[in-house]
Design brief:
Length: 516
């Protein structure tokens, strides 16, 4: 029984987060062990780690997750025949390397909740080189350790650093763990099938080509590739007149596929699935069979072989098909899991840089784009403009018509702002009823004012929904490069200051930043 379990060894810094993910996923075949470790400064108690590794039964799958900087600590304990995954930067497991790199470029030191506990008792923390050069302490708050918020304030005050809290979920950690365990499950299934599959292939024709196809199955990453290879494999080994495959998704039949592709015979009826016994059955003609592809708890598809090459050896063909079916099911499910994880990663990456209500880029995305535009403008000795747009009286719209209408209004404003800009310009939502605009190339300050005026005119047209309508006005503050600032934060700050002057003078207007 021990060989059917995956042993995960995790440093205590991330132990609570891994426990939460395992509880959500109900991963009963994963055993979690921990060992003392810390990220600031990087430290591993090797005796404790070796003791945790010694608990893994021989031949079992295993995974190690160590604290930040472990690869810089020299020789690490050998994991034997198990799988080893050393993570150089633990924050990567909570929000991905692309985001952690972004915050580090800003001078932030990312703090894990589980790593704060020893900061007030360990004098070596203050000597940590990355911490000494940081501009701000940012806590990646998973919500699992409420005491970390108070510890962050104490740590920041003791070292004279400003602090911030960045809420993060467990989605990225769940993807990492799912990939690690999925690889192990795939290996387990391959090991169980190797002996019987090799013997079955030995008695079949075209051994080398068949083995090559099976090897290809293990390398595919998309479901269409997996299904194509499966149909190629069955065609090669069974030499049938035709093969039909009914794809099954979320408990329902989906598309139908056939080999040869021009076959006009219908694919197997979905009702046949309910009548299958032991996941397979011979056809009425007695020269072929039906095979369920999947697991006891999930059906992935229904395969029909019309005629095998030698009907007198139908039992041999069926035995072979049952073995291949398990391998193909694992390959297809692995491809589905990969595609799902890729979509989840794309969603996480999109949400990190976009506003969920309007679909516009958010402030983080705007700053990255503005920084790049400033570099280009500096090389070309060009000019650019940053605009801060605020809707006048938006709170009254929410109070009078409700937040649903307010959300509709913000979405309409986003569309109008985009239509008012030129190709290459950018609009982002700051939050609430505030928007940022970037004009990466302007020939004169008056050009920026013309764009600002066009924006105000577009927004002043009535907003209609159902049988009602309302009007709003907008205030716009403008900052120009190079005269009003040379970096992104300064230009945004000065555009905000110009916006504040418009508000002071009665709103519904636009103004350039003036240092006085």
């Amino acid at each position: 029984m021990s060989k059917e379990r995956f042993h995960l060894i995790v440093c205590e810094t991330l132990a609570d987060e891994f426990r939460a993910v395992l509880a959500q996923e109900r991963a009963d075949d994963v055993v979690l062990n921990t060992f003392p470790g810390r990220c600031t400064p990087p430290q591993i108690e090797r005796v404790a780690l070796a003791a945790a590794a010694a608990t893994i039964p021989l031949g079992c799958g295993c995974g190690f997750v160590g604290p930040c900087g472990t690869t810089a600590l020299g020789e690490l304990p050998d994991a034997g025949a198990g799988r080893v995954r050393w993570i150089e930067a633990c924050p990567d497991l909570l929000m991905g390397p692309h985001l952690t790199d972004h915050y580090r470029r800003l001078g932030d030191y990312l703090v894990l909740p589980g790593d704060l506990a020893h900061w007030d008792t360990d004098a070596t923390v203050a000597g940590s080189e990355p911490l000494q050069s940081a501009k701000r302490l940012v806590l990646l708050d998973t919500g699992l350790r409420p005491a970390a918020l108070a510890l962050l304030d104490v740590a920041g005050a003791a070292r004279g650093y400003p602090t911030a809290v960045l809420p993060v979920g467990l989605s990225y950690l769940r993807l990492f763990l799912a990939r690690m365990v999925l690889e192990w499950r795939l290996e387990q299934e391959k090991n169980r099938s190797t002996t019987s599959l090799s013997e079955a292939i030995r008695r079949s024709s075209d051994h080398a080509m068949a083995l090559d196809l099976i090897g290809t199955l293990a390398r595919v990453v998309t479901e269409p590739e997996a299904i194509d290879n499966m149909l190629d494999l069955f065609t090669l080994l069974f030499a049938p007149g035709a093969i039909h495959y009914l794809v099954w998704r979320e408990g329902q039949p989906a598309e139908q596929l056939s080999r040869p592709a021009e076959s006009t015979l219908p694919a197997p009826d979905a009702e046949l699935l309910a009548r299958l016994e032991a996941d397979h059955a011979t056809t009425e003609s007695g020269t072929g069979f039906l095979l369920r592809i999947g697991y006891p708890e999930e059906t992935l598809g229904l395969l029909e072989i019309e005629d095998v090459a030698f009907p007198q050896h139908l039992k041999h063909y069926l035995d072979l098909a049952l073995i291949l079916g398990r391998v193909c099911a694992l390959t297809i499910s692995n491809a589905r899991a990969y595609e799902k994880s890729r979509r989840n990663e794309e969603t996480i990456r999109y949400q990190a840089y976009h506003d969920t209500l309007t679909g516009l880029p958010n402030r983080r995305s705007f700053q990255d784009r503005l920084t790049a535009a400033l570099a280009q403008a500096g090389l070309a000795a060009g000019r650019l403009a940053v605009m801060f747009v605020d809707l006048d009286g938006f709170k009254r719209v929410n109070d009078r018509f409700g937040h649903e209408v307010g959300d509709f209004l913000l979405q309409e404003v986003a569309q109008r702002l985009q239509k008012a800009l030129r190709a290459g310009d950018m609009v982002a939502r700051m939050g609430g009823d505030e928007f940022l605009l970037l004009l990466p190339t302007i020939d004169h300050p008056a050009s920026a004012l013309l764009v600002a005026q066009r924006i105000r005119e577009n927004l002043n047209r009535p907003f209609a929904w159902a049988d009602q309508e309302t009007r709003i006005t907008a205030s716009v503050g403008v900052a120009l490069y190079p005269q009003d600032g040379a970096d992104a934060e300064t230009l945004i700050k000065h555009a905000d200051a110009a916006l504040y002057r418009v508000k002071e003078r009665g709103k519904d207007g636009c103004e350039l930043f003036a240092s006085e």
